[in-house]
Amino acid sequence: MTENASKYPFKLPFSYYLNSDVIFLAKDLLGKVLYTQIDGKTTAGIIVETEAYFGVQDKASHAYGGRRTNRTEIMFGTGGVSYVYLCYGIHHLFNIVSSIEGEPHAVLIRAIEPLEGKQFMEERRNMISTKSAISSGPGSAAKAMGIDASFNKKDLNGDEIWLEDHGIKYTEEQIFASPRVGVAYAQEHALLPWRFFIKGNKYVSKPNKTT
Question: CATH class for domain 5-198?
Answer without folding.
Answer: alpha beta
